[in-house]
Amino acid sequence: MILGTIRGTVVSTRKCRNLVGFKLLLVEPYFGDKSQLFVAADTIGAGIGELVLVTTDETTQHALDRSAPVDAYVVGIVDAPPQLGK
Amino acid sequence: MILGTIRGTVVSTRKCRNLVGFKLLLVEPYFGDKSQLFVAADTIGAGIGELVLVTTDETTQHALDRSAPVDAYVVGIVDAPPQLGK
Amino acid sequence: MILGTIRGTVVSTRKCRNLVGFKLLLVEPYFGDKSQLFVAADTIGAGIGELVLVTTDETTQHALDRSAPVDAYVVGIVDAPPQLGK
Amino acid sequence: MILGTIRGTVVSTRKCRNLVGFKLLLVEPYFGDKSQLFVAADTIGAGIGELVLVTTDETTQHALDRSAPVDAYVVGIVDAPPQLGK
Amino acid sequence: MILGTIRGTVVSTRKCRNLVGFKLLLVEPYFGDKSQLFVAADTIGAGIGELVLVTTDETTQHALDRSAPVDAYVVGIVDAPPQLGK
């Protein structure tokens, strides 16, 4: 999974019907290339600046109550930034 | 999901029968390496210059009415460029 | 999907039985890092130098008549190089 | 699969119910870009500093007893660092 | 698929039960970033120094007799290094 920080929201009025009901969050990778921001769907309610855990590709479907065209999904809010070596 | 800008269309007369009926759009990533353009299938009707939301890999199938060999699919037109921090 | 140019063929006599019957083509990405050549299976009959459309990962299976261990598959031959902005 | 070294743990109290019961480990890639740390779920019991084998995307599901939104999973602890050429 | 050269083997005594029976080979990409070595499962019997064809992600399952947590699998031994343009 990817660790990332929520940097904003994305609004899409004209969208695929199966995407209705998901909040769309802009995620900045915590590790690696921080310029590679991506969009993750969320129903946990993560806020701007929070550190989250995102699963990707088809594995997102195992967190959803119904199938949806979502390749990145917030599966947890991380309690504290990871401490390397602990 | 990937945020991207529509930069053009791709025409393929000799193609796989399951690909017939999809518009093929050239997408430039909004974040990260802008040289990594890719092709996404579209039925929402996104136009050149519009900012779109693209889902990838097998998750595309959850937006389609029939299965198709499509690993990138436009699932929404974004209302406005994202504001970081909002 | 990935746009790529056919640069050669790959021959593999000792191979997995489900791979028999596919032509194996060496594809150079049209956009991004051109050193990242990869191999795609093909049954459309694309030739050396032709510009093709390749789908990847499990979505390849939606173009095949039988399941096969193929993570890149040629799904179309592109009529002309894409014109950015048109 | 990815070879990686366990560098820490990630704690997420507010998380998706299907993620409960998995230890979440911070993994540093052994080869390639070491800055691209990611999070893998684990039930084998790998410890900090150990070299592990991680499978990704939907293939994680073939190691689990129940489906879970996990796109990286520890499938083995490696006996010794690999010797190139042996 | 990825073209790669076998550079070594990986031994993992403490591993997931579904991984038992597979040889684990260290693969160096033939094209692109050669530092990005990864591990592929093999039952064809590829040896050190041989050039192989590797399929990835869930498509590996279409080469296996039983499902396994394997995201890279050797599906062929390549007869000769590819000749660009032929």
UniProtKB/TrEMBL annotation, chains A, B, C, D, E:
Keywords associated with the record: Bacterial microcompartment, Carboxysome
Pfam families: EutN_CcmL
Gene Ontology CC, one term: carboxysome
Main location: other
InterPro entries for the chain: EutN_CcmL (IPR004992), EutN_CcmL_sf (IPR036677)
Gene3D superfamilies from the UniProt entry: EutN/Ccml
Cell wall biogenesis/degradation among keywords: no
Record's signal peptide: none
Subcellular location: Carboxysome
Protein name: Ethanolamine utilization protein EutN
Protein source organism: Enterocloster lavalensis
